[in-house]
Amino acid sequence: MNRFSSALKKFKRSRTSVFLMFAAVPIVGYLLFYFYPILRTLMLSFTDKTMTRPDVNVVWLDNYIRIFRNETLLGKALVNSIIYAFGSGVITLVIAFFMALLLNSKVKGVGVFRIILFLPFVIPTFASAAIFKGLFDPNSGLINVFLYDNFGIQGPGWFKSEDTALLTMILMSIWGFGIQMLIFLSALQNVPASLYEAAEIDGASKTRKFLSITMPMISPMLFLNVVLVTINGLKSFNTGYLIGGVEGNPNNSTLLFPVLIYRIAFNTEYGGRRLGYASALAYIFFLVIMVFTAVQFIMSKFYVNKDVE
Amino acid sequence: MEQVKKFHRKHDLRGKIVNYVLLVLASIFVLIPFFYLVMTCFKDLNEVTGSTVTLFPQGNHFLENLSFVWNYEDYHFFRYFFNTMFIFVLKTVGILLTCSLAGYAFAKFPCKLNSFMFTAFIAVLFLPGELLNIPFYEIMVNLNLRYSPIYVPIWIGAWFGTDITIIFLFRQYFFSIPDSLAEAAKIDGANEFTAFLRVMLPLSRSVIVTTIILYFVGTYNDVYGPSLYIRANDYEHKVIAQSVGIFENLYNYGSRDFIVPYHYVSIATVISILPVLVFFFAAQKNFVESLVGSGLKA
Question: Which CATH class is domain A69-303?
Fold first, then answer.
C-alpha cells in the first residue's frame, strides 16, 4: 500500500502526468473522432448496414466486389475527381506562378494588384458558384452573349452540357488562384538578393538567373503547392455539390468522388443511406489519396532542391 | 559605359511597362465576375432569362430586387448571419481552449506518451474526412442529434481538440518561447496551469488570430456540415452558405430546366459576401499572413 501511494505521488509529479493533464481532452477527442471512426468505417464496409433497415448482415468483401464489378459510377466519379484535381491544379499553379513573378517586380502600386488578384480567393465557394452559373448561363450569361454579339458564335452549354460541365468547373476553380500566388510570392521574396548580385557580377543573363537561382530556391514551395492543389482537388466536395448537386448534373458529369460517397451514405433517394456500401467506397477513396500522395513525394525527389532548408 | 547604363535603363522601363500592362489585364479578368454580379443586381427578369439580354442593365431595378429578396418569406438574413456566427464562435472557442492546451503539452512536456501520441496525431493528419464522417453521422442520428437546433454535430468536435493543424501551430509556437518564462511564474507560486494561462497563452496571440481567421473562412465556406445536419426545409435554421440557394431554386418545381432568377440570386450573393469582404479588408494583413501560413481552404 505504501509503495503504491509513493509510486502514485511520483507519477503525479512526473512529466507524463502533467502532459496528460494538459492533453487529456484532445486525446479523448482523438479516440472518439479519429480512432473509433477509422475502425468503425472499416467494420461497416464489411456489412450491408443501411439507415433505413434495422437488420445488419456481415457480407465480408461483398461491398468491395460489387463496387468493382457493378458500380458504373465508381469509374466516372474517380475519373471526374482526377481530371478536376489535375486540370484545376496545373492551370492554377501556372497562372499563380506567373502572377507571382509579375508581383515580385518593384513597380509602384503593386500592393493594389496583389489585393485585386487575391480577392476571388476570399469569396466563399457557394457565392462563386452562384456568380459563375450566371456568367456561364448558355442563354443569358455574359460569356455566351458576348460570343454571339461580337463573333456570331453560338457558345457551348457550359455547366448545362455534359461535355463541358467539368471543364467549366475547372475554369471556375482557377478564379481562386490567389492563395497559391501568395505562397509563390513569399517564396520568391525569400530568395536572398546576394545570390542575384553575385550572379550579376559573373555576367549571368536573366534566364540563367531564373533557372539557376530562382527555380532551385523556390522548389520546396513549389512542392508544397503541388501537394496542396492535388490533394485538395481530389478531396473537393463543395464545387461538385454546388454545381451539380448530389446527382452530379448533367448526367453525372460533375459527380466528384466525395459527392458520390455523400449521396450513397446520406441521401435517402439513392438506395436508403447505405452506410456499409459507402464505407467501402470511403476506404477505396482513402487508398486513392494515399497513392497520389506517395506519387507526389516520389516525384518531388526529382525537382525539389535539398540544399534549400 | 554611359551607353550601357542608358541601355539598361531603357530596357528596365520597357520591362516595367510590359509588367504593368500584364497586371492590369489580369486584374480586369479577375474583376469581370464581380462586375457582372453587380450589373445583374440592377436587371429585371426579362434581362436575365434570355429574351433581351445585354451586359449593361437597361433600367434600374436594384431597389425593387433588393426589397423582393429582403422581404421574401423564406429568407431571413439576420437569422442566417446569427446562426453562422453562433457556429463560428462555438467552434473557435472550443478549438482555442483545447488545442492551445494540447499544443503546450506537446511542446513543453516531453515523455514517452508525448512522442507516441504525436506520431498517432501525425498519422491521421491527411486522412480524408469521408473516412470519419460516416460513423459520426451514425452516432448523431442514433443520439437524435442530427437536426439539433443548436447545431451540435457541426461544432461538437471542436470542443474535443480535433483540429490537428491548430495543435501543431500552437506546438510550434510554444517551442519558440523559452521555458524560463513559465519557470519564473512558478517560482512566484503559480502552478503549471496558471503559469500557462497567465504567461504562455497571452504570448501566443498570433496563433490565436490565425485560428480565428481560418475558422471564420472555414465556417463561412462550409457546405458539407450544414447540408447534412440542417433540415432542408428548415428556413429558420439555415446558414449564410445556404442562403443563395433559396433564390437559385425559386422557380424549381421539379423540372430539369427551371428558370433561375439571376437578378435575385445576385442580390442574395452580394448580401452574403458583404460580411466576408468587411472582415477581409478590416484584418487584411493578418488575413493574408494566416492563410498563406497554413495554405488551406476546404
Answer: mainly alpha
Nearest Cβ partner for A282 among B101, B131, B227:
B131
Per residue in A110-138, pLDDT tens?
A: 889 999 999 999 999 999 999 999 999 98
Picking from A119, A126, A228, A242 by the largest number of B CB atoms within 10 A of its own CB, the best residue to mutate is A126
User: What are the chain B neighbours of A22 within 8 Å (beta carbons)?
Assistant: 101-102, 104-105, 109, 192, 196
**Closest residue to A140, CB basis, from B53, B98, B159:** B53
CB < 8 Å to B31, chain A: 116
Preceding amide of B135 cis, omega within 30: no
User: What is the SS3 string spanning chain A?
Assistant: CHHHHHHHHHHHHCHHHHHHHHHHHHHHHHHHHHHHHHHHHHHHCCECCCCCCCCCCECCCHHHHHHHHHCHHHHHHHHHHHHHHHHHHHHHHHHHHHHHHHHCCCCCCHHHHHHHHHHHHHCCHHHHHHHHHHHCCCCCCHHHHHHHHHHCCCCCCHHHCCCCHHHHHHHHHHCCCHHHHHHHHHHHHCCCHHHHHHHHHCCCCHHHHHHHHHHHHHHHHHHHHHHHHHHHHHHCCHHHHHHHCCCCCCCCCCCCHHHHHHHHHHCCCCCCCCHHHHHHHHHHHHHHHHHHHHHHHHHHHHHCCCCCC
How many Å apart are CA B286 and CA B283, to the nearest integer?
6
Low-confidence ranges of chain A (pLDDT < 70): 1, 306-309
- Within 8 A of B33 by CB-CB distance, chain A residues are 120, 128, 131-132, 135, 175
ipTM for the predicted complex: 0.91
Q: Which three cell numbers stand for residue B101?
A: 492546451
How far apart CA A22 and CA B100 sit, in angstroms, is 9
Given a contact cutoff of 8 angstroms between Cβ atoms, the answer to whether B154 and B229 are in contact is: yes
Q: Helix, strand, or coil here: B125? A: coil
This prediction's pTM: 0.92
Domain boundary assignment for chain A: 2-44, 69-303
What single letter denotes the amino acid at residue A115?
A: I
Which among B109, B132, B157 has the least Cβ separation from residue A18? B109
pLDDT of residue B231: 93
Chunked mean pLDDT (size 10), chain B, 298 residues: 58 83 95 95 86 78 95 95 97 96 94 93 87 94 95 96 93 90 82 87 91 93 95 93 94 83 96 94 85 59
At the fourth CATH level, the homologous superfamily of domain B72-294 is: MetI-like (1.10.3720.10)
**Min Cα separation A131/chain B (Å):** 6
pLDDT for A294 = 87
Does A15 contact B23 at a Cβ distance shorter than 8 Å?
no
- Which residues of A fall within a CB distance of 8 Å from B104? 22
B291:A37 CB<8 A = no
Whole-angstrom distance, CA of residue A131 vs CA of residue A128: 5
Asked if A139 lies within 8 A of B30 by C-beta distance, the reply is no
Task: Give the domain ranges of chain B.
Answer: 2-70, 72-294
